[in-house]
Every structure is written in C-alpha cells, then in structure tokens.
Design a protein that fits this description.
Number of strands: 10
Strand content: 15-25%
Structural class: alpha/beta
Strand order of the largest sheet: 2-1-4-6-7-10
Largest sheet: 6 strands, mixed
Shape: globular
Helix content: 25-40%
Number of helices: 7
Radius of gyration: 19 Å
Length: 270
Amino acid sequence: MRQSKISVLCFSPTGGTERIARIAAGELAGRLGLEQEFIDFTRPENRQREYRFGPEDLLVMASPVYAGRLPNKLMPEYRAKIFGEGASALALCVFGNRSPDEALRELVLLLEDNGFQMAGAAAFAGRHAFSDKVGAGRPDEADQEEIRQFARRAAEKLAGGELPRLELDRGEIGPYYTPLREDGAPAKFLKARPVTDGEKCVRCGRCVRACPLGSIDRETMEAAGLCIKCQACIRRCPAGAKHFEDPDFLSHTAMLEQNYTRRAENQIFL
C-alpha cells in the first residue's frame, strides 16, 4: 500500500540523532512526495501517550546507542507506546563512533514485534555525547551522502510494494557493553550526576527544559533524580556551568578518546 505520510520519531537529548533522522526523512519525503510529521520523543510529556501507525503510514524511528544497546530507561516506553498495525518503518540508530553493537538489531526486533514492516535499518556514527574528540565531525559529508543513499534505496523498496524481511540475525540480544576505565577495569559511574558551577550558572533554566527525564530541580539547577548521562544539560548550557567530576566517568571518557577516534563504519540493512 502506498504511504500517505512520514512520521519521524526520535529520542535525541543532544540533537545528533535528530539530525541524522531528519537527513534520512528529508530524502525519503522528496523521493516519495510525502509530508513529514516530527515527534520529539525526547520530551517527557510526549512519552505519555501512545503512537499508533496504520498501513498508509511510514515511520522513521531513530534512537541513540547507549552502551551498545537501546537506552535501557527508554526501552519500556519504546515497547509500550509505539505500534505499527501494518505500517512500514525504517530503524535508525546513532552511535558515538565506538560501535552500535546490538542496538540496531534490538530496534528492528522491537519494531517487528510491535507490528511494523521493515523497509530498512541502519546505524550511523555521530559525535560521542561524552567527548568532542570521539566521532569529531560525524556525520561528515561522506556520512550524509551514505544516509541519503540509504534513504533513496529504501524509497525504491517502498515504491515497489512488498517489503521482504530484512536479512539480519534474529537471535537473542547480547548484553550491554561494559564501560572501561583507562586501565581496562570496569568503569562504575551509574550513580554519577553532573554538577553545577554556581559562579557560572545564570539560572536560565535551559538544563531543566533539556533533561529528558525531568530530573533537574528548578530551584537549585542540580540533578535531583535519575541521570542517564545523556549530556543534554551540559551540551545545552550557554554558560558552560555543568560538568561531571566522577573519576570513573572521566577515566572512561579518556579511554574513549585514546581508543575510538578512528573512523567507525556505518551499518546498513536493506
């Protein structure tokens, strides 16, 4: 069945995943002659409702990769709020130049289980949220052309009607990646939270609005609830007032900068 609309749904605390999703969706929209609807799944209020898509809908769903998987705090909401009911979908994962590991397979299986027909799936490298040195400049011009080519090929499949099953491993999903310190030992920073420099903070509230879990206190500007280390508050602070001080977090970031500045390859399934 011919699609009548493209819905772009993404969780993107620092904007990198959204950027890649919009490049792919823009190419699809141009090729298929469809309007786009953007659903910002990053905002807590937008995760309170269900999203149901029918046979005439095309969903582009994009998620960042956290520790080689889909973000564990978002998985229940992905599974409980997004349903296909015969809709077509493209799965996009964005990883911070280390590896997508199991995230893309995990997203494809989730969407298939929730009633979507897959037109394609891809994992693209972006700048790592923890460091400007890891994945610097990604997606670059070559990446952007690869994203557009992926979208063009997916559009051709969609225009052809039937969507054959993607050829990828549908076995059990592996464990989360274990973050490492510089010395190779596991980095344990689960309870780490960003701290605020009171002298720099201008109390603009951007961090409060940016936090995808609503965990920053409006009075103190400090993280008072669960922190998923997404870096939204740090990246969006205009005064540079937020940072991490946790030793294991900093050591893990240093390890990434030592070992993962090489150009990681994108993954595409069509």
